């Protein structure tokens, strides 16, 4: 199976508790499974490519699980995703979907477990790093959250969701105003229409000025 994941398609789909990869048949066997790779298109986003041989039944179960999550049938969708993840443990996408779904359900321990499993399969997955950073922040592990956001941005510097999350973390939780300002400004180069972030930048510049006076 080859999975191709477009960043911005995924980010929209994440609101529906799914990663939204496209699965297709592939002649690559488990023994010759190729490492995951990322293709970056600066004007569009990034594409994650993983290759693994799975059956049509597993692919259909995966699609059905995403459909259930989209319809708000979270328990059923999670249960089916668990089956898919057990059948194809080396594929990162089901674990990321489970991480997002468990996060939405309030089970942060299960979310963390699945996101870490996703990163074991694919250490260069920006979305898994970003989602894990959110879990770390919500559980009070701010240093770990920063590392996760920075890991996502090291892989893809234009990943504006991780950039915004890092800016907020530095501003509200780490009291690192320079970090917050730099990341908000970088974020605004990709999302210039975010008026809320513009106000935050002005506020941080004011606070930095007060400290330096």
Structure explained in plain terms:
The chain is of the alpha+beta class and 213 residues long. The protein folds into two domains: 1-107, no CATH class; 125-213, Alpha Horseshoe (Serine Threonine Protein Phosphatase 5, Tetratricopeptide repeat), CATH 1.25.40.10. Helix content is 65%, strand content 9%. It is built from ten helices and four strands; from the N terminus they run E-H-E-E-E-H-H-H-H-H-H-H-H-H. A four-stranded antiparallel β-sheet has the order 2-1-4-3. Strand 3 and strand 4 (45-51) form a beta hairpin. Helix 9 runs antiparallel to helix 10 (195-212). The chain starts with a strand and ends with a helix. The relative contact order is 0.10.
Can you give me a brief rundown of this structure?
The protein has helices at 7-14, 56-70, 74-87, 92-105, 108-121, 126-138, 142-155, 160-173, 177-190, 195-212; strands at 2-6, 22-24, 37-41, 45-51. With 213 residues, it is of the alpha+beta class.
Strand percentage lies at: 5-15%
User: What's the alpha carbon Rg, rounded to whole Å?
Assistant: 18 Å
User: Quick one: overall form?
Assistant: elongated
Q: Strand pairing plus helix content: what structural class?
A: alpha+beta
Question: Any key phrases for this structure?
Answer:
213 residues; alpha+beta; Serine Threonine Protein Phosphatase 5, Tetratricopeptide repeat; four-stranded antiparallel sheet; disordered N terminus
Record the SSE blueprint.
Blueprint: E1 2-6, H1 7-14, E2 22-24, E3 37-41, E4 45-51, H2 56-70, H3 74-87, H4 92-105, H5 108-121, H6 126-138, H7 142-155, H8 160-173, H9 177-190, H10 195-212
Antiparallel strand pairs: 1-2, 1-4, 3-4
Helix pairs in contact: 2-3, 3-4, 4-5, 4-6, 5-6, 6-7, 6-8, 7-8, 8-9, 9-10
């Amino acid at each position: 199976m080859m999975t191709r994941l477009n960043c911005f398609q995924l980010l929209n789909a994440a609101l529906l508790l799914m990663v939204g990869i496209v699965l297709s048949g592939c002649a690559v066997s488990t023994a010759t499974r190729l490492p995951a790779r990322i293709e970056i298109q600066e004007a569009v986003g990034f594409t994650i490519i993983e290759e693994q041989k799975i059956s049509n039944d597993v692919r259909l179960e995966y699609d059905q699980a995403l459909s259930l999550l989209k319809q708000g049938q979270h328990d059923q969708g999670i249960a089916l995703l668990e089956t898919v993840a057990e059948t194809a443990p080396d594929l990162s996408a089901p674990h990321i979907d489970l991480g997002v779904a468990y996060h939405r359900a309030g089970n942060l321990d299960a979310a963390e477990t699945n996101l870490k499993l996703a990163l074991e399969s694919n250490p260069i997955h920006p979305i898994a790093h970003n989602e894990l950073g959110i879990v770390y922040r919500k559980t009070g592990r701010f240093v770990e959250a920063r590392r996760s956001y920075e890991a996502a941005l090291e892989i893809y510097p234009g990943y504006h969701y991780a950039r915004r999350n890092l800016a907020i973390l530095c501003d509200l939780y780490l009291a690192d105003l320079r970090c917050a300002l730099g990341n908000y400004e970088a974020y605004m180069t990709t999302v210039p229409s975010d008026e809320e972030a513009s106000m935050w930048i002005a506020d941080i510049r004011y606070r930095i000025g007060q400290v330096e006076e």
